[in-house]
Amino acid sequence: MANTILIETITLTSCYNISMKVPYSTYEELLRDMLERKGGVLTARDASDADIPKKVLYRFIQENELEKASHGVYVSPDEIPDELYLLQQRYPKIIFSHQTALWLHDLAEREPLPISLTVDSNYNAGSLSDQGVKIYYVKPDWYDMGVCESKSPGGHLVRAYDKERTLCDMIRRRKATDPAAYRYALRHYAGSPDKNLLNLSEYAQRMGIERQVAQAMEVLL
Protein backbone atom coordinates (compact mmCIF):
# COMPACT_ATOMS: atom_id res chain seq x y z
CA MET A 1 0.00 0.00 0.00
CA ALA A 2 1.20 3.55 -0.66
CA ASN A 3 2.85 5.32 2.28
CA THR A 4 2.31 2.40 4.67
CA ILE A 5 4.70 2.21 7.64
CA LEU A 6 5.95 -1.30 8.33
CA ILE A 7 8.12 -2.28 11.26
CA GLU A 8 11.33 -1.01 9.67
CA THR A 9 10.37 0.05 6.14
CA ILE A 10 8.08 2.41 4.27
CA THR A 11 6.42 1.03 1.15
CA LEU A 12 6.13 3.63 -1.61
CA THR A 13 4.15 3.04 -4.77
CA SER A 14 5.02 5.14 -7.82
CA CYS A 15 2.62 6.32 -10.50
CA TYR A 16 3.85 3.38 -12.61
CA ASN A 17 2.70 0.88 -9.96
CA ILE A 18 6.27 0.00 -9.04
CA SER A 19 6.66 -0.52 -5.31
CA MET A 20 9.86 -0.02 -3.38
CA LYS A 21 10.68 -0.30 0.29
CA VAL A 22 12.51 2.60 1.92
CA PRO A 23 14.02 1.81 5.34
CA TYR A 24 12.58 3.92 8.12
CA SER A 25 16.15 4.48 9.28
CA THR A 26 16.85 6.37 6.03
CA TYR A 27 14.08 8.87 6.72
CA GLU A 28 15.04 8.99 10.38
CA GLU A 29 18.60 9.95 9.45
CA LEU A 30 17.32 12.74 7.20
CA LEU A 31 15.05 14.09 9.93
CA ARG A 32 17.82 13.97 12.53
CA ASP A 33 20.07 15.90 10.18
CA MET A 34 17.35 18.55 9.67
CA LEU A 35 16.85 18.81 13.42
CA GLU A 36 20.57 19.28 14.03
CA ARG A 37 21.12 21.77 11.22
CA LYS A 38 18.24 23.94 12.42
CA GLY A 39 19.27 23.97 16.04
CA GLY A 40 16.66 21.61 17.43
CA VAL A 41 13.77 22.84 15.27
CA LEU A 42 11.93 20.70 12.73
CA THR A 43 9.20 21.92 10.38
CA ALA A 44 6.59 20.02 8.44
CA ARG A 45 7.47 22.22 5.44
CA ASP A 46 11.09 21.02 5.43
CA ALA A 47 10.00 17.39 5.74
CA SER A 48 7.55 17.80 2.87
CA ASP A 49 10.22 19.45 0.70
CA ALA A 50 12.41 16.38 1.33
CA ASP A 51 9.54 14.08 0.24
CA ILE A 52 9.27 12.51 3.69
CA PRO A 53 5.80 10.98 4.24
CA LYS A 54 3.66 12.60 6.94
CA LYS A 55 3.27 9.33 8.84
CA VAL A 56 7.04 9.02 9.06
CA LEU A 57 7.35 12.60 10.30
CA TYR A 58 4.72 12.10 13.01
CA ARG A 59 6.32 8.83 14.11
CA PHE A 60 9.68 10.60 14.42
CA ILE A 61 8.07 13.44 16.40
CA GLN A 62 6.49 10.98 18.84
CA GLU A 63 9.57 8.79 19.25
CA ASN A 64 11.80 11.80 19.93
CA GLU A 65 9.23 13.61 22.10
CA LEU A 66 9.41 16.80 20.06
CA GLU A 67 7.21 19.60 21.34
CA LYS A 68 4.81 21.48 19.08
CA ALA A 69 5.82 25.15 19.11
CA SER A 70 3.21 26.23 16.56
CA HIS A 71 1.43 24.89 13.51
CA GLY A 72 3.92 22.70 11.62
CA VAL A 73 6.87 23.64 13.83
CA TYR A 74 8.36 21.20 16.35
CA VAL A 75 11.15 21.72 18.87
CA SER A 76 13.50 19.38 20.70
CA PRO A 77 12.64 19.19 24.43
CA ASP A 78 16.26 20.16 25.19
CA GLU A 79 16.07 23.31 23.11
CA ILE A 80 15.46 26.70 24.75
CA PRO A 81 12.65 28.39 22.75
CA ASP A 82 13.91 31.13 20.42
CA GLU A 83 10.87 33.25 19.59
CA LEU A 84 12.39 35.06 16.62
CA TYR A 85 13.74 31.90 15.03
CA LEU A 86 10.48 29.99 15.52
CA LEU A 87 8.52 32.87 14.02
CA GLN A 88 10.90 32.92 11.04
CA GLN A 89 10.48 29.18 10.53
CA ARG A 90 6.72 29.46 10.50
CA TYR A 91 6.65 32.57 8.30
CA PRO A 92 9.75 32.45 6.03
CA LYS A 93 8.93 35.68 4.19
CA ILE A 94 9.06 37.96 7.22
CA ILE A 95 12.04 40.27 7.76
CA PHE A 96 12.72 41.60 11.25
CA SER A 97 12.84 45.37 11.14
CA HIS A 98 12.51 48.69 12.99
CA GLN A 99 12.90 48.34 16.78
CA THR A 100 13.56 44.59 16.60
CA ALA A 101 16.30 45.05 13.99
CA LEU A 102 17.85 47.82 16.09
CA TRP A 103 18.02 45.40 19.01
CA LEU A 104 19.55 42.64 16.88
CA HIS A 105 22.27 45.09 15.79
CA ASP A 106 22.94 46.32 19.36
CA LEU A 107 21.45 49.71 18.55
CA ALA A 108 18.75 49.49 21.24
CA GLU A 109 19.02 49.51 25.02
CA ARG A 110 16.34 46.88 25.65
CA GLU A 111 14.40 44.17 23.90
CA PRO A 112 11.41 45.79 22.20
CA LEU A 113 7.87 44.56 22.49
CA PRO A 114 6.06 43.70 20.39
CA ILE A 115 8.32 42.16 17.76
CA SER A 116 8.55 44.36 14.63
CA LEU A 117 8.74 42.83 11.18
CA THR A 118 8.23 43.78 7.55
CA VAL A 119 6.53 42.02 4.65
CA ASP A 120 5.84 42.82 1.01
CA SER A 121 2.68 44.89 0.55
CA ASN A 122 1.24 42.02 -1.52
CA TYR A 123 1.76 39.53 1.31
CA ASN A 124 -1.33 37.92 2.81
CA ALA A 125 -0.60 38.13 6.54
CA GLY A 126 -3.28 35.59 7.47
CA SER A 127 -2.50 34.03 10.85
CA LEU A 128 0.59 36.23 11.22
CA SER A 129 -1.77 39.01 12.27
CA ASP A 130 -2.74 36.93 15.31
CA GLN A 131 0.82 36.48 16.60
CA GLY A 132 0.99 39.71 18.61
CA VAL A 133 3.59 41.29 16.31
CA LYS A 134 3.87 44.72 14.70
CA ILE A 135 3.63 44.28 10.92
CA TYR A 136 4.97 46.86 8.47
CA TYR A 137 4.02 46.62 4.79
CA VAL A 138 6.37 48.02 2.15
CA LYS A 139 6.23 48.22 -1.61
CA PRO A 140 8.00 45.38 -3.45
CA ASP A 141 10.90 47.63 -4.56
CA TRP A 142 11.89 48.17 -0.92
CA TYR A 143 11.21 44.70 0.45
CA ASP A 144 14.61 43.09 -0.33
CA MET A 145 16.68 46.22 0.16
CA GLY A 146 19.25 45.76 2.91
CA VAL A 147 18.29 42.23 3.94
CA CYS A 148 20.97 40.40 5.92
CA GLU A 149 21.30 37.49 8.32
CA SER A 150 21.57 38.38 11.99
CA LYS A 151 22.05 36.18 15.02
CA SER A 152 19.03 35.89 17.30
CA PRO A 153 19.33 35.81 21.11
CA GLY A 154 19.12 32.03 20.89
CA GLY A 155 22.08 31.89 18.51
CA HIS A 156 20.11 31.15 15.33
CA LEU A 157 20.43 33.10 12.10
CA VAL A 158 17.31 35.07 11.15
CA ARG A 159 16.54 37.49 8.34
CA ALA A 160 16.63 41.16 9.32
CA TYR A 161 17.38 44.49 7.71
CA ASP A 162 20.96 45.71 8.10
CA LYS A 163 21.86 48.71 10.23
CA GLU A 164 21.63 51.22 7.40
CA ARG A 165 18.23 50.10 6.15
CA THR A 166 16.93 50.03 9.71
CA LEU A 167 18.12 53.57 10.36
CA CYS A 168 16.37 54.73 7.18
CA ASP A 169 13.15 53.08 8.37
CA MET A 170 13.46 54.78 11.77
CA ILE A 171 14.28 58.20 10.32
CA ARG A 172 11.39 57.88 7.86
CA ARG A 173 9.04 57.20 10.78
CA ARG A 174 10.69 59.51 13.28
CA LYS A 175 7.45 60.97 14.60
CA ALA A 176 6.25 57.46 15.55
CA THR A 177 9.55 56.52 17.23
CA ASP A 178 10.38 56.96 20.92
CA PRO A 179 12.77 59.99 21.05
CA ALA A 180 15.17 58.34 23.51
CA ALA A 181 15.37 55.14 21.43
CA TYR A 182 15.85 57.22 18.28
CA ARG A 183 18.78 59.20 19.74
CA TYR A 184 20.36 56.04 21.17
CA ALA A 185 20.25 54.27 17.81
CA LEU A 186 21.75 57.21 15.88
CA ARG A 187 24.49 57.85 18.42
CA HIS A 188 25.59 54.22 18.62
CA TYR A 189 25.43 53.77 14.85
CA ALA A 190 27.66 56.82 14.34
CA GLY A 191 30.20 55.30 16.72
CA SER A 192 30.12 51.78 15.28
CA PRO A 193 33.27 50.69 13.42
CA ASP A 194 31.34 48.69 10.82
CA LYS A 195 28.93 51.41 9.67
CA ASN A 196 28.50 51.67 5.90
CA LEU A 197 27.72 55.24 4.93
CA LEU A 198 27.63 54.39 1.21
CA ASN A 199 24.79 51.92 1.81
CA LEU A 200 23.05 54.43 4.07
CA SER A 201 23.21 57.05 1.30
CA GLU A 202 22.01 54.57 -1.34
CA TYR A 203 19.04 53.40 0.72
CA ALA A 204 18.10 56.99 1.58
CA GLN A 205 18.14 57.93 -2.09
CA ARG A 206 15.98 54.96 -3.11
CA MET A 207 13.50 55.76 -0.33
CA GLY A 208 13.42 59.48 -1.12
CA ILE A 209 14.64 60.59 2.32
CA GLU A 210 18.16 61.88 1.52
CA ARG A 211 17.57 65.24 3.20
CA GLN A 212 16.14 63.73 6.39
CA VAL A 213 19.01 61.24 6.71
CA ALA A 214 21.62 63.93 6.07
CA GLN A 215 20.09 66.16 8.73
CA ALA A 216 19.96 63.32 11.25
CA MET A 217 23.57 62.30 10.71
CA GLU A 218 25.34 65.63 10.15
CA VAL A 219 25.57 66.48 13.86
CA LEU A 220 26.98 63.03 14.73
CA LEU A 221 29.66 62.49 12.08
Radius of gyration: 22 Å
Structural class: alpha+beta
The total count of strands amounts to 11
Low-confidence residue ranges: 1-7, 9-20
Q: What's the helical proportion of residues?
A: 40-55%
User: What strand line-up does the widest sheet have?
Assistant: 1-2-3
How do the SSEs run, as a string of H and E? EEEHEHHEEHEHEEHEEHHHH
* Largest pleated sheet: 3 strands, antiparallel
- How many structural domains? 2
Which percent range describes the beta-strand content?
A: 15-25%
Question: How many helix segments?
Answer: 10
Protein described:
By secondary structure, the chain is of the alpha+beta class. It folds into 2 domains: 4-75, no CATH class; 92-218, no CATH class. Helix content is 41%, strand content 20%. The protein has 10 helices and 11 strands. The chain has helices spanning 24-37, 44-49, 54-63, 83-90, 98-104, 140-143, 163-172, 179-190, 197-207, 210-218; strands spanning 4-5, 9-13, 19-23, 41-43, 67-70, 73-75, 95-96, 116-120, 134-138, 147-151, 157-161. Strands 1-2-3 form a 3-stranded antiparallel sheet. It has a 3-stranded antiparallel sheet with strand order 4-6-5. It has a 3-stranded mixed sheet with strand order 7-8-9. α5 (98-104) packs antiparallel against α7 (163-172), α7 (163-172) packs antiparallel against α8 and α7 crosses α9 (197-207). It is elongated and about 65 Å long. Mean pLDDT is 87; it is low at 1-7 and 9-20.
Task: Give the structure's gist in a few sentences.
With 221 residues, the chain is of the alpha+beta class. It has 10 helices and 11 strands. Helix 5 (98-104) runs antiparallel to helix 7, helix 7 packs antiparallel against helix 8 and helix 7 (163-172) packs across helix 9.
